[in-house]
Write a structure and sequence with these properties.
heterodimer, A: mainly beta, 5-stranded antiparallel sheet, B: 7-stranded mixed sheet, globular
């Protein structure tokens, strides 16, 4: 079992819809969770971080964390074609500074 | 403000050559990380520095890979006797907070290494 799992997609949504991206992780001790956006040929860009159970909202983005179920999700409201990218879920475990990444979910937003 | 910078952005090497990749972190950031990203995959951890100390090198794939950060700022990742399987994008990230629970890492643009 991979430490961080994501559906590779592509996830296709029409413009204006809500895109829902999911991620599960295996280490119950994980405490920090991050979503990065990566455009083709570019490096990962941090868009959300979440540390506590529940929801965290930032503009059109909402990160959701459920430690009991070991999943973290990212909702993108009013999706735009410019949101088309690969979204990487990353997890950090206490005692280790490194981030462990999933393989990413490719999101396609059609006009 | 200035972000993480990396050079060169692209590097083509013949198999067996040595290469050196440079990373200049965000000013004041204590922690520096190197990751390797293969096509279609997420970044994979290579090594981590806190100031000049290399605290974790568990991800370095072989003894051909060596990293240093002698003055606690700029870092160099060196790959000796490059092999075709070393072809990847090498990403550098830096983080201000040394506490692992609040470890927001910011990435540079990466160096795309192609080994022929």
């Amino acid at each position: 079992q991979k430490e961080v799992e994501q559906n590779s997609g592509p996830l296709s949504v029409p413009e204006g819809a809500i895109a829902s991206l999911n991620c599960t992780y295996s280490d119950r001790g994980s405490q920090s969770f991050f979503w990065y956006r990566q455009y083709s040929g570019k490096s990962p860009e941090l868009i959300m971080s979440i540390y506590s159970n529940g929801d965290k909202e930032d503009g059109r983005f909402t990160a959701q964390l459920n430690k009991a179920s070991q999943y973290v999700s990212l909702l993108i409201r009013d999706s735009q074609p410019s949101d088309s990218a690969t979204y990487l879920c990353a997890v950090n475990t206490p005692g280790f500074q490194k981030l462990v990444f999933g393989t990413g979910t490719r999101l396609l937003v059609s006009p | 403000g200035a972000g993480v910078s990396q050079s060169p952005r692209y590097k083509v090497a013949k198999r067996g050559q040595d290469v050196a990749l440079r990373c200049d972190p965000i000013s004041g950031h204590v922690s520096l990380f190197w990751y390797q990203q293969a096509l279609g995959q997420g970044p994979e951890f290579l090594t981590y520095f806190q100031n000049e100390a290399q605290l974790d090198k568990s991800g370095l794939p072989s003894d051909r890979f060596f990293a240093e950060r002698p003055e606690g700022s700029v870092s160099t990742l060196k790959i000796q006797r490059t092999q075709q399987e070393d072809s990847a994008v090498y990403l550098c990230a830096s983080s201000f907070d040394r506490r692992s629970s609040y470890n927001e890492q910011f990435f540079g643009p990466g160096t795309r290494l192609t080994v022929l």
